[in-house]
Amino acid sequence: MAATSRKVAVVGVALSDCGRIDGRTPYSLLAQAARRALADSGLDRSAVDGFGSAGLGLLAPAEAAEYLGIRPRWVDSTSVGGASWEVMAAHAADAIAAGHARAVLLAYGSTARADIRAGRRTAGLSFGGGGPLQFEAPYGHTLIAKYAMAARRHMHEYGTTLEQLASVAVQARAHAAANPEAMYRAPITVDEVLSGPMVADPFTKLHCCVRSDGGCAVLLAGEEFLPDTAKPPAWILGTGEYVSHTAMSSWEDFTVSPAAVSGRLAFERAGLAPAEMDIAEVYDAFTHMTLVTLEDLGFCAKGEGGAFVAEGRIGPGGELPVNTDGGGLSACHPGMRGLFLLVEAVRQLRGEAGGHQVRLPGGGPPRLAVACGTGGWFCSSGTVVLGRD
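Structure tokens predicted for Acetyl-CoA acetyltransferase (389 residues):
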């Protein structure tokens, strides 16, 4: 195989209609986002020779590719929960750099909210009772219970407070307030978060992500396509991935997420440090996830996340704006949110985020961003560092 050294960029991003979407299928939302991402890139569908998807059908991504009418020669269906998309983006960037593909489309669609309302499915309390989970499921060890236990351990070890966790939700909502695509935009207070109905101690309702419908798509391409693209590139500078455990009994330290490894790898490969990032888009199914992921990515020391997120530091105008669209806590969370993190990061780097656009002191958009997806209950992580010219 001939060695290549192609640079790889994200050249197209888009969301489908998101939020409360009745009467649509996951495939139609995936296709809507894919069409919009191609239009955003300015490239023709014929340029796409790679495709990645997960979460749909029995033969992902074959079923989704057939629905889109494409016949990719490079495919990926890595399924590690919400981190799948950052991991697939890493794989796609490697494939393009090596010459195995020219342009790779990643696409996702979900009607998680609409399906429950229509009675087509019930809320999933866990991922099942087979394999290693058979030793935990009989004791009512639900998905949210695992995160709640991890949050309580962090509070015990480091003195993290409920108010600090609640401030994460408040700041996410502050970002969402300026985003017309966000599902919930009305401001909330720490007291409102703390006084809400309990879901899994210590998480009240507003500590938890919203349930929504929606789809999104991201198109990555080699540098030779840049003269033909419609928008400035968001370059893939470094990536990392890591899987740590499945059973809680195999999780050595409940206060450390796999982002501690995936983040370190991504920053090392990018030749950059966390302190150089202008924004961070991280998976936030629960408030505690944001806090711990920021620690493990290296934005603060282990145990200092509570103090780091306090006093508006991650909100609009803060020193590190986090989840600038409102995140899964306020904007949207249709099951597997990892791809949405990449869409928002690219929009911010381009200066296309509208009312919730982050501006550097000189007035320009961010130059560097990190997107970090999480899967399972901190079981897997994928991190992507992006930058603009």
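The two ends are 30 Å apart (CA to CA).
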